[in-house]
């Protein structure tokens, strides 16, 4: 099997054709998570490489099939909104893990905590003194006129100044292996259930190699999340619920999974009501006062009396109860202004301003199309850049210049000229690659990483690992499941 692995890796080198990335066209090398540039195996991958070498291709394919069947049996799905049939799909899992040495993980962990701490400080500032805006570090109009900025939150104190209790930080590695932050997720970050289910499958199908590695555990994440939510309120023995938009939401499986793991109710709008400034749950025991709501729907749908009047997903009067401090909402309304891609370029400044520290993790260079001089550069170099909607997600609304047809480039050119403030642009990234099992054997595909940071007034917590997403299509840089991506288990190991 060792020869098969070596040969299949050789055939997976980037193709210099129309479908290749800009890095392929420039004959640049990607950072390989498994191998050094000379082809030798990295220390942290040595044991898994030997394990794979001792298996036949048929055995690995059988294990991969069993993993897929587990996802089908457990109903681990996501919904593709732009599919004409609105289909639910099982997310593809590749059994070969992504492995991170603990010394590297320690840097990632501290960098993510630092970043989320600064973002929470920023949110507290812009809803109170607005000092960072007054000093001109961030343009005031870019924040105060932002559609995610919520006047409801002005001068409203949240416990411990924690606005984003659950945060996801998307990371990539460049061609030399340095970690970069691609974006922040502070509204309703998803994917943690995939992280946990991937680990269950690894331990079930590869128990011997998992035991050899003595993997850093992630299974306690639901308990850490529950503890974080408990610490968000001063109420003794509080009632915590997860508020879901319902079964047709793309992350509904995760909502149900976390509710089950934390042993708390999963509720929809029809299960809650507000009376005398308090939120109540309808239950077989009668009405019960709700103290903490872990909401998994966007601000616009939270309360039809405060936001969208046509929302049937939210609870009428919820924001009034929130302002009366009878209920905690996690994450807090108004966090979206801090994870917008047009605010992202300023996070390094936030870290220096609020924490008086240098950023541990780097930002990807970003052009703000709202700035005339940066727009000019973007328009002149569209074929080299990735253009994103500032509030886009899921891999939608993107232009990957090196892979785009001339018509697509021209379409985006007109969009940028018409509404430049809605877009940012970045260099085409040389995302690191990791092996996956394909129909052709083992091939390298691009990956990213989303660690999850939990913040409470008492403590910041992060489990060792995260969600590794993988672009299953050859040459693709888009790892989102909605765009054909899959997932891998993420192992943090001592070396």
How would you characterize this protein structure?
Residues 1-27 have low confidence and may be disordered. 31% of the residues lie in helices and 22% in strands. The chain is α+β, with helices and mostly antiparallel strands. Among the domains are: 220-330, Rossmann fold (3-Layer(aba) Sandwich), CATH 3.40.50.11290; 365-427, Dna Ligase, domain 1. The chain has 15 helices and 23 strands. A 5-stranded mixed sheet has the order 3-23-22-19-18. A 5-stranded mixed sheet has the order 13-5-4-20-21. α5 packs across α13. It has helices spanning 2-11, 22-25, 46-53, 57-74, 102-126, 131-134, 140-144, 192-205, 207-213, 221-230, 252-262, 318-323, 347-355, 372-380, 406-418; strands at 77-79, 88-90, 93-101, 166-173, 179-185, 240-243, 266-267, 272-275, 278-283, 286-289, 292-295, 328-330, 362-363, 367-368, 385-389, 399-400, 423-427, 433-438, 441-450, 452-455, 460-462, 467-471, 485-493. Residues 1-20 are annotated as: Disordered. Residues 97-471 form the Circularly permuted ATP-grasp type domain. Residues 1-11 have a biased composition (Polar residues). Pfam families: CP_ATPgrasp_2.
Q: Characterize the overall form.
A: globular
Oligomer: single chain
Quickly give the CATH architecture of the domain at 220-330.
3-Layer(aba) Sandwich
CATH level-1 class of the domain at 220-330? Alpha Beta
Number of strands: 23
C-alpha Rg (nearest Å): 23 Å
Distance between the termini: 25 Å
State the secondary-structure class. alpha+beta
Mean pLDDT: 89
Helix content: 25-40%
Helical stretch count? 15
For the largest beta sheet, what order do the strands appear in spatially?
3-23-22-19-18
Q: Tell me what portion of residues adopts beta-strand conformation.
A: 15-25%
The CATH topology of the domain at 220-330 is Rossmann fold
What ranges have pLDDT less than 50 throughout 5 or more consecutive residues? Answer: 1-27
The biggest beta sheet is recorded as: 5 strands, mixed
